[in-house]
Amino acid sequence: AYERRFPTCPLIPMFVASDTVNEYKSEDEAVHVIERRCKLDIDAPRLLKKIAGVDYVYFVQKNSLNRRERTLHIEAYNETFSNRVIINEHCSYTVHPDNEDWTCFEQSASLDIKSFFGFESTVEKIAMKQYTSNIKKGKEIIEYYLKQLEEEGITFVPRWTPPVACKSESSTSHPRRPVSPAINIPESATKEGLNNKEILNTSSSPSEPTAGTPDDKLDADYIKRYLGDLTPMQESCLIRLRQWLQETHKGKIPKDEHILRFLRARDFNIDKAREILCQSLTWRKQHQVDYILDTWNPPQVLQDYYAGGWHHHDKDGRPLYVLRLGQMDTKGLVRALGEEALLRYVLSINEEGLRRCEENTKVFGRPISSWTCLVDLEGLNMRHLWRPGVKALLRIIEVVEANYPETLGRLLILRAPRVFPVLWTLVSPFIDDNTRKKFLIYAGNDYQGPGGLLDYIDKEIIPDFLGGECMCEVPEGGLVPKSLYRTAEELENEDIKLWTETIYQSASVFKGAPHEVLIQIVDASSVITWDFDVCKGDIVFNIFHSKRAPQPPKKDSLGAHSITSPGGNNVQLIDKVWQLGRDYSMVESPLICKEGESVQGSHVTRWPGFYILQWKFHSMPACATTNLPRVDDVLASLQVSSHKCKVMYYTEVIGSEDFRGSMTSLESSHSGFSQLSAATTSSSQSHSSSMISR
C-alpha cells in the first residue's frame, strides 16, 4: 500500500514527482531498498520563493523493506539548500510485539536552520506547519491505498519464507554481504553529487573563498584574481576580521571583497572597520536592501525624470555611471516622491553597481570592486540649492558613505558652473576624506583638453551630449510637472509608511532604563517568537509573565533620555513597585547578547496573561575584563564610554491551533545578517517528533 504513493500521490498536492536513483534487492528477496529523488512544491509565499530562486525543492527518500523482520524503514533528507537548512525525517512500520495483527507507526523529524537570507523564523514556521499537516494526513493516505487494494481483490499478502536454494548457496562459497554496506551511499557524497545545481548563484559565486582556503592564509591566485594586491599585514587583517565575524555571529559572513571595502575605508584598523561593518549589515537586514533589485520597482516619475544611468565602463574596467545632475529637477522629484523614494532609488543604483563589479571582475579577469561616476553639471543653478533638496542629498550621501565605502573609484565632475562652489561647500563636509581624493572637477570645457575625459574613458564611449560619438540612453531629465506634486501631508504620511515598511522596530536601551514589549496571551500553549539584532552595546534579554496588565507608559516616561526619533524609542512597562516573584515571574533564563549578534528564538506559553519581553543594559564587571578572551575583550572595551545600547527587533505570536511540536529554545542563538554572506555555520535548531500515541 505504501509503494502506491509513488511516483506521485494525488492525495499530497505538493508531491509533484519522483525518480528512482538507486535500487537494491537481496538474492532471497527478503530485503528491498529503493532510493528516490522527490520533487515538492512547498506552500511558501511567492516572494520567499523568488528570493530563494527556486520553484521546487528536492528531497531524497530511502525506503528499506525487510520482509524477514517485517519492517519498513523510511529515511528522508533535503537536497535543496542543504548548505543552509538540514531536514532529516525517519519513519518506521513495525509489527506490534503483543499482537502481530497490528501495525505500529513511528515518525520523527529534525530541522536545523543554519541561515536563510534573513528569513530563518519564516522558514521554520513553514516547515513545522507542513510537517504537522503531513502527520495528520499520513493515516488517511495509507487507508486510501489499503481500500484501493481491497477493491482490486487483494486482501492478503503471504509472509516471506526463505528459499531453500538461496540458503545453501549463501552458506557455502558466497557469504551474503551485510545489507547496509551494500546499499548505503555516503550522505555527504550523495549531497555533493546531487546538490550543486540547487545551490543559489550567490552561494556558488567564484568571488567567495573556496572551502579549502586555509584559515591563516589566503591562496595567492585567489587574492590576485578577486581581491587585488594585499600586503601581508592587510591579508592578516582580512583573515582576522573574517574570523571575528564567524565567532561572534555564529553564522554567515560577508564575502571577502565586502569585508575588504570596510577595512580599506578605515585604513585597515580592525576595530573601526568591524564597528561600521556590523552597523551596515544590520541596516541591510532591517531595510531588506539585499532584495531591493528584485522586489522594488522605481515609480514612473523616477524612470522619466531621474537623469542618470549606467553607460559601459571606463579604461580600468570599472562600471561607468552617468548622472546629468544639471538637467535634473531635484526640487520637482522631492516634491513628487519624497526623500524615501529618492533614497531607495539611489540604493538600487548602488546595488546594481555591486552586481556590475562582480560581472566585470569575471569579464576582465582581475578584481574590480568600484565604479566610476561621471556627473555633468551643465544647467546647474540656484534651483538645485533648494533647501529640502539639499537636505535629501545630504541624507543620501550619509547613507551611501556608511554602507558602500570604497565603491566609488573615481568621480568626474564636468562643466562645473559658478554656482557649484556653493553646493560643494554644503556637501563636502559630509564626504569622507578618502572619497574626496577621488574627485576630479573640470570647469567649462576643460574636460576636453589634456588630463581630461580621454585619460579615463575610451573615445568610443564618450556620450554624445559631451561631444562624443556614443549614443547615451540616460534620460534627459527636465522639469517634473507640478500636477505630479504631492501635498506636504501626503509626503509625510508616505515617509512614515516607508519607514515602518520594515517588519523590524528599533529601540534604545539605557543603563537603568530597559526597553520592554507587552504581549497578551489568551490561549495557553501559544508560541511567542522573536528575532532581534544587537546594533550597539551588550544587552540581557528576559521574558516575564504577569497575571495583571502593567499600566501603560506615561508620555514623559523617557525622562532625561527624551528619545523622539522613530529609530530609538524606549518603553518601560514593569512598575518600579512590582516585586519579582509576587507581581510577575521570570519564565526563561536571562540571555546575555553581545554587540553585533542576531538572535532568534521562541517560547511556548504555559499560562494565559501578559508576557513582557525585556532588553536590559548589560555591563561587564570591572574585575573580569582582564581575564576575557581576545574577542570578548575587544567587545567589552567598546562599552566603556557609553551607557546606551540599540536593538532592532521583531516579535510574533503563533496560535496554539496553528502550531504543533517544539520550536527553537531561548538558547537558539545567533545567525548572520546579510545575503552578501557566503560561509555558514549552525545558528538555530528545531526538533519535533510524533508517535502513534499522539
TrEMBL record:
Domain (CRAL-TRIO): residue spans on this chain: 298-474
Record-annotated PRELI/MSF1 domain positions: 1-154
Segments of skewed composition (Polar residues): 198-210
Annotated ranges, domain GOLD: 500-653
Region annotated Disordered, chain positions: 167-216
UniProt-listed GO biological process terms: innate immune response; negative regulation of RIG-I signaling pathway
Keywords, sorted A to Z: Cytoplasm, Golgi apparatus, Immunity, Innate immunity, Phosphoprotein, Signal transduction inhibitor
Name of the molecule in the record: SEC14-like protein 1
Gene: Sec14l1_0
